[in-house]
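Narrative of activities, Objective 1.

The group set out to show that a structural description can be obtained from nothing but a protein's sequence at a throughput compatible with the screening campaign. Below is one input-output pair from the validation batch, recorded exactly as produced.
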Amino acid sequence: MEKKFLIATLAASFLIVGCAEESATTPKSPVVKVQQIKLSNAAAEENYSGVVKGRYETNLSFQVGGKIISRDVQAGSLVRAGEILMTLDPKDIVEQSKSSDAQVASARAQLQLAKSNLDRYTELFKSEAIAAVVLDQYKTQYDAAQAAYDAALAQAKQSQNALEYTTLTANADGVISEISAEIGQVVAAGQTVLKLVQTNEFEVAVNIPENKISAVQIGQRVTVDFWATKDIVEGTVREISPMADSASRTFTVKISLPEVRNIQLGMTANVSMLGEISTQAIILPLSAIYQTGNDAQVWLVNGGKVSLKKIEVTAFDANNVQVRGLSAGDIVVVAGVQKLHDGQEVRTGD
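Output recorded for this entry:
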């Protein structure tokens, strides 16, 4: 009897172990969260970082060359139109002006002599004491003296102007944003020494990638918010660069701003604008993307099994992506994509 009981006990144990082994070798298919693709039209919001600038920025320079002897402003100085900013040493130009004045005096004396000769020989001609050809010679001398005098006057005026050009003044109200020359430095005519930014009108400059620039139009309304002041205003696209930057391959876009208090040059701003409207746009959660190398893929469920499908990401934000490459009705795994393998059986659920 005991022998029969032992045999029955062993048989039951083998049966339990066999069932456990069978259960271990045939695990249940994992449950995945899926989303069925539905096509729609969407316009993605694009955000770009920009910098506050003055609409009018002027590179200031002297109209004559010379040595700088004074600088009356600092970087960041607020200036008014006509205010003196820098001064050149005028000594050489003063000497040139004196030389020009002497040439005027000499030309005036020659003109007076030519006029006296012309008057005297005109009277002699009237009394038929000289021939007409002699009178013509003195008329020519007088005309030449008059031309020389006029030239000397013009040269003297130019020298006086040059003396005035030794003082550099502000052409408008604004702020000095850059100084590129110092006292004691010798500068050439036309060499930039200061940069003046007019503060009566601000704008924001942003750089738009070449694949997004077609969605930007002159006059387009955009939203501009300032990180430092928390102000949010509506701006208008004023200018689009006709050529991309050779290094960054981006286009500079300038956005006019309404009058905003508390903003200053150089502040950062975030510019939000709507991108191109994408027909048949597909929006997926970011967790649905399975990245392998440089390729973006998703897992499709078909017949209870998963397979990889390559897609193209066209836009994204913090939680969602806009993609191309899927069809209406496709079932995409949107959670747990890193634990799947090709051909694996899955169960769909919430």
